[in-house]
Each structure stands twice: as structure tokens, then as C-alpha cells.
Amino acid sequence: MGKRKLVLYISMSLDGYLATKDDDLSWLSIVEREGEDYGYTAFNESVDTYIVGRATYDVVLKLTGGTFPPAEQHKCYVITRQERASENGVTFYNGDLETLIHQLKSENGKNIYCDGGGQIVKLLMEKNLIDEYRVAIVPIILGEGKRLFLGGTPRIDLEALPSKQYVSGLVHLHYVKK
User: Using one digit for the tens of pLDDT, what is the confidence trace for 32-91?
Assistant: First the structure.
């Protein structure tokens, strides 16, 4: 297997939600600061492949008026249960997720970026396929919504790398698989 890693790079509320029940992400704006990207540009340069679930893909399309920005920079895979032809730089994948991840990790290239959602993260965690967890905690409690970690997965031991706290209150956590 190659040296590529699958990295979960994602934001959530302090109480563990990715979005509200109706897919509202406007709460993420509370940490927006001019000139601050929380390390995203550097991270984005370390990856060349992007994986996301179909529901999250649909939310991004809705928020951007029908465009999918990651496809402009990366090889993109949308994980779906339905067969669908590739379009606009996006490959819709409905095969075995573990097979895809092993294939991608064995190829030459940069790291692989997973951006959720919760169902995809759970599937990846069930097979212990995520090598790094980079989670930005946004200082808000939503109370309800769509969870990042859905439970029902085996125990995964992690090693903490230095975290970083920002003036906005955002805390970026970084863990690697032991």
C-alpha cells in the first residue's frame, strides 16, 4: 500500500453536529475572520482527492447554486447507493467503499480528503480506514441536527497531535490512528 492517507477534515459544533436538521450551515459563519482560513489552504494543498457522501454533495450544490467547488481542484468521488454517470469532474461511486479507499491509498498522489457526512464517516470508521481526524470545533451548541459521529463503530485508538485555538473560539483538533 502507498503512503497516501485518508484524512477526515471537517467542522462541527461543540455538541457534535455537522448541520442543523434542515442542512443549515450558516452557523459556521460565526468564526469567519478576514484573512483567517484556519489552515485550510495548506491542508487543501496536501490533498488531491476528495470524497464526500451524496447527501453532503447535494447540500453543497444547493448552497453554491449548482457548482461543486472541490471538483475544480481535486479528483472527486461522491459515494452513493445509486448508479450514476460521472459529471462535471465528479465520479459517482456505488461500489464497495473499502475497495475504493484501498485502491486510492495504493496509487501515487497526495492525501485523500474526506468531508463527510456522518453516514460516510461511519462507514469509513467501521473498517478503520480513516488515518487522520482533523476536526474544527466551532464554539456553538446547536442542540440538535445532523451528527458527525453516529456511533455503532468499533473502538479506534488515536494519538493526539497538537491542537490549535484561534481568537474566534474555534479549536482545531488533530488525531492520527495509532
Answer: 999 999 999 999 999 999 999 999 999 999 999 999 999 999 999 999 999 999 999 999
CATH code where residue 145 lies: 3.40.430.10
Q: What's the number of CA atoms in the CB half-sphere (13 Å) around residue 11?
A: 22
Q: The domain containing residue 43 runs over which residues?
A: 6-177
* Structural domain includes residue 1: no
- Neighbour-count burial for 138-157, b at 16+ CB within 10 Å, e otherwise: bebebeebbbbeeeeeeeee
Enter the C-alpha cell of residue 65: 447554486
Q: Which residue has the cell 440538535?
A: 144
Q: What is the distance in angstroms between the CA of the first residue and the CA of the last residue of the chain?
A: 17
Q: What pTM, to 2 d.p., does this model score?
A: 0.95
